[in-house]
Amino acid sequence: MSDFxxxxxxxxxxxxxxxxxxxxxxxxxxxxxxxxxxVLEQLAAIFNSGKVKGDTLIDIGTGPSIYQLLSAxxxxxxxxxxxxxxxxxxxxxxxxxxxxxxxxxxSVINHVCQLEGDRISCQEKEERLRxxxxxxxxCDVLKxxxxxxxxxxxxxxxLSCLCLEAACKDFETYDTSLKxxxxxxxxxxxxxxxxxxxxxxxxxxxxKFSSLKLNDAFLREAITGAxxxxxxxxxxxxxxxxxxxxxxxSGYFVIIAQKERDx
Length: 263
Ligand SMILES: C[S@@+](CC[C@H](N)C(=O)[O-])C[C@H]1O[C@@H](n2cnc3c(N)ncnc32)[C@H](O)[C@@H]1O
Description:
By secondary structure, the protein is of the alpha/beta class. About 35% of the residues lie in helices and about 25% in strands.
């Protein structure tokens, strides 16, 4: 039997609070810092470029996270978020409704505001994002319609961060899942994909989750095979040797690709 996490593991063992506490206090020296500095800068550039914009963006496998949406809300009128696990969607909703106990994203929001030239305050940024989020949906990338039983008009942008390598046990499943989520995107729309390279596992609290070990060549083939032309492929090799042992990734990527055909 595969030890790759499935439905049961994500639904029952993935603690949103432990995940956020482990990786999302920017600047506190966690293993997540380098990924976040790289990805937040790239996303700020992409979503403030004027090129990747439109009515609706869907984020696939949002988890309990908002970092990936902070610049996106400058370029899209509506954002739909989605995740497989009930607890992640609940944690996301606690933040969305500004309820007591919500994770403190201020270190991340502060950084994004700075990257965007301090045009608005952190409080305004957080409120802008809350207003832009229109739906929080259940999603399973392994399904032909990942947001089944819901259907939505095709969107202008498909965003997914650190999700497919967590959800897919092998390259074939990754290919199929990428094609599944791509059905939600209009022709001519953009895919923005971020993740980690060479990663076998990550720890969420005491729980160890397997990850599909991605490489540059596979990603290029998977994305073109799913009907896209790649516009930008930013790779970054990890430079800092963290004292933490919460994951074993060797680098990170941010990819922008335009959908040319249905695959
Ligand atoms: C490492 S977390 C990434 C969360 C968030 N995107 C981020 O960047 O922090 C992986 C996410 O993939 C989700 N996931 C796992 N299997 C999935 C599936 N079959 N379909 C959709 N999401 C899934 C998990 O619930 C979890 O939120």
